[in-house]
Amino acid sequence: MILQSLYNLSDDATEAQILDRLSFMRFLGLSIGDRVPDAKTIWLFREELKKAGIFLDLFVKFDRFLKANGFEAKKGQIVDATIVSVPKQRNKRKENEKIKSGKEIEEWSDNKRRQKDVDARWTKKNGKAYFGYKNHISVDVKNKFIRKFEVTDASVHDSRVFKELLDEDNTSGAVWADSAYRSYKNLWYLGLNGYRDHIQRKGKRNRPLSDREKKGNRTRSKISQGLSMYLVFNFKRLAI
Question: Got the DSSP string for the chain?
């Protein structure tokens, strides 16, 4: 679960990377001769953790481990969201209508129900459609570790998950995010709770950004782009 969150991996990709990377196997305490859990096993395990109410306890324990080894959350935080695609569901139209309305499909057997993902949703980004979930994360600027996270279906807008991600234990109150998070509500919350706003500004139809605002955005983006490059670099390393 920790590796999935840190590297933004689907269940299938997690299985493949554990098989491919010795660093993942060492992290999980596995040797080359050990059996690796498949994607379905990983999914079932996560569902059991959710039902037991201990899913977040894993990350609390991991964060304590980081702090104990000198990796405190420092120099502010960056809030972002990434889409995690999952296999498309081959459901009938009436079945999808029931899923969206939160109704149970009585025709499904228990075995079939366990294999169906009824929580994922569709969304569009840059004109392309995706089916799955969103990882909403808060990363500390100094060490680039995820300190807080929330998972939603992919249709949830980034800005709807913001204050839940803010890490009060960071040594700095600075908060970076792209323009999707800029709203009066979020800015008001930051100011009220002692955080410093470094959220990208966005222009409007009748009010384009001024040169000063554009310059400010470029300054802010140096921090957030550093995170994007860091995540992309590590993800590419995983794919090699």
Answer: -HHHHHHT--HHHHHHHHHH-HHHHHHTT--TTS----HHHHHHHHHHHHHHT-HHHHHHHHHHHHHHTT----S-EEEEEEEEE-PPP---HHHHHHHHTT---TTS-HHHHHH---S-EEEEETTEEEEEEEEEEEEETTT--EEEEEEEETTS-GGGS-GGG--TTSS--EEEE-GGG--HHHHHHHHHTT-EEEEPP--BTTBPPPHHHHHHHHHHHHHHHHHHHHHHHHHHHHH-
pLDDT profile of the chain (240 residues), mean per 10:
78 90 91 89 84 79 86 90 84 82 80 79 90 89 86 92 93 92 93 92 77 74 58 41
User: What confidence score (pLDDT) does residue 226 get?
Assistant: 54
Length of the chain: 240
The Cα 236–Cα 240 span in angstroms is 6
Query: pTM (2 decimals)?
Result: 0.71
Cα atoms in the Cβ-side hemisphere of radius 13 Å centred on 207? 5
Would you kindly state where each structural domain of the chain is located, as residue ranges? 1-71, 72-239
Tens digit of each residue's pLDDT (9 = 90 or more) over 77-123: 999 988 888 888 888 888 888 888 878 887 887 777 777 788 888 99
